[in-house]
Amino acid sequence: MSGSGGRPHLAIPGPSIMPDRVLRAMNRAAPNIYAGELPDMMPDLISDLCKVACTKGRAAIYIANGHGVWEAALANTVAPGDSVLALATGRFGHGWAEVAAARGLTVETLDFGRRSAVDAARIEATLRADKAHKIKAVLATHVDTSTSVLNDIAAIRAAIDAAGHPALLMADCIASLACDRFEMDAWGVDVMIAASQKGLMTPPGLGFVFFNARAAKARAALDRVSKYWDWTPRAEPELFYQYFGGTAPTHHIYGLRAALDMLLEEGLENVWSRHDMLARAIWTACEVWGADGPLRLNVSDVARRSRAVTALSLRAPDGQRLRDWLEAEMGVTLGIGLGMATEDDPDATGFFRIGHMGHLNAHGLLGVLGSIEAGLLALDIPHGLGAVGMAARSIAKQR
Ligand SMILES: *Cc1c(COP(=O)(O)O)cnc(C)c1O
Q: Which atom of ligand 1 lies at the shortest distance from residue 195's CA?
């Protein structure tokens, strides 16, 4: 006997749960790409994307995953031989730095480890030392999905300004957009990247680059940009195909339209509050479990925890055992421990993650927490008692 029948629940940090409304919007015959509804949808789609990003800047869309927009952001702002400063608080910070290095950029990486956020003082000192202003851009990850560290993007902008440095600030919000509060213009971000499959609740396949006038100036100053990655025609198209540099991602556009409608109907502030409420319930449960057993939240500083994803550890290989048990017995899939390998645990089998981005409600989340508790019991993993009740209490108190 297994309890995993019925609709499975994907609790990984992307792709996230897809709302029925998004799925229904995509379930249609191939639309006309020459004229009519689909091309007519684009201006509002772009302006609603910018609302979610909290920017009055421009947006370019790519048929790509997050790795694609890592590339796109760099292709339009910096040239081989330029220097960039990469801030790493986990695997994804290093990933963007690797893409930059492969493009022929000189990359200086400030590594803040796997459990803490960036230190603005170190960023400021590094930029002050760059008297010749060789560094053209600072690459920051808002939420590093591997560690679940949430970085203070406004503080990074303040550090750049305090150093009197002209570098562009680029933020990777692929995990955090529409989960953790993010305000592109108010926080002084020049380039922001996102993707469809996390907080935006749409299947993987669309990547977004948002940019302001400063970033557009950097683009204009480049000698050349490869035709496919150039954001200019995508952001200022004369013809429909130019939005995508080729054939439109027809069904993804309908799915994204439904997802944006849902986000804007709920209201961005309410979306952020819902994710805050759910994240606090998770942290509460994890602290109770951990009070009498090996379970640990990866990020101890509450202010630096993401509301999109939570990275956790047990004793190896219990992270892997718990994931396997939940999938087989409860129909719940948890995220793997990504980029968390240690000498003692080279396959990171002690680690796992709860994805809570996108289309998640309180009963869905309490189901995940109850399933984890069942797994801890079934696998004889020691843990504090009453965690799910305390999570329910946390939700009740926040209503
Ligand atoms: C998911 C993610 C990426 C990579 O996105 P892919 O779609 O897997 O290429 C990059 N950065 C962050 C912060 C992410 O969460």
A: 7
